Description:
Elements: H1 2-7, H2 20-26, H3 34-58, H4 70-90, H5 116-138, H6 149-178, E1 189-194, E2 201-207, E3 211-218, E4 231-234, H7 240-246, H8 249-257, E5 261-268, E6 271-278, E7 291-298, E8 303-310
Antiparallel strand pairs: 1-2, 2-3, 3-4, 5-6, 6-7, 7-8
Helix pairs in contact: 3-4, 5-6
Amino acid sequence: MLVVSGIAPDLDYASYFGGAGAFLRFHRTLFHSIPGAALMACGVAGAFYFLHKRREQKQLRAHAALPFTFASAVAVCAIGAGAHVLLDLASGEGVQLFWPFRAHWTAWSVAAKFDPWILALLTAGLLIPQLFRLVGEEIGARKKASAGGGAAIFTLALLAAYLGMRAELRSRAIDLLLSSEYRGREPLAAGAFPSSVNPLNWRGVVTTDDTVEEIDVSLGPRAGFDAGRSLTHYKPQESPALDAAEKTSAARRFLNYAEFPLISVSRREDGYRCELRDVRFPAGDADPANIIVRIELDSDLKVMHEEYRFASSSTF
Length: 316
């Protein structure tokens, strides 16, 4: 039950096959929200409880067993689903916790989508107790019914400490980004996104009045920070075409999702093309969460076409 409920929230990944628009609408919303995860946990618990009752009717037990109730099944499944959502909250992609009642993305951005250190911690917590159990059997030590329980608690404590450390490092990276000027421009907001391998390396994004800056941040003891090394993206100037594009339903949904949106407006023979991307994803990032919006306007600023695309299958 714990494994199934811990994996089940990713069923909303099936929205990928419906295209970028469906993926943006349902991925990390349908089963990653608190209401969706609760319903999913109850469904998984109900399925296991039903199978248990059928199995119980078909065989006679030789000895008494711990009672298997629907409430205990829901509790186990809630732990599995909750752990999944918490780990996804730690990533920079985020989840919509209160979907469908509130369309707001929450992301802690303290760990990468795939963090080998988290995987190593959880694997060690699983395997080390088994190793001690085998060693104990070899030397004839007495078995303990609670073997592995202490190791599991210790592993979870280490995981919490690791995420706390990464949160502190992210705070330091953001403070460093906000304390610098970028070619004479004052920073207005900043974000730091983690490296999957080195906890001391972060990818920084800073917004100023008229630019969005990308810069790598290293928090190592001998690392320096030079704001002049940033990659500069210029924001578009205010224009009727920009206003028209931002009022479309596709742009509004995307701007609710994007943490550092960047819009480009280009003049074409028959009108304008506006493209929106989220700079928290580096150029060339093939993650399906890296979505862009393309809006076509005619010369009278009427919307001809609007669509979502996966950045991996599109060019600017």
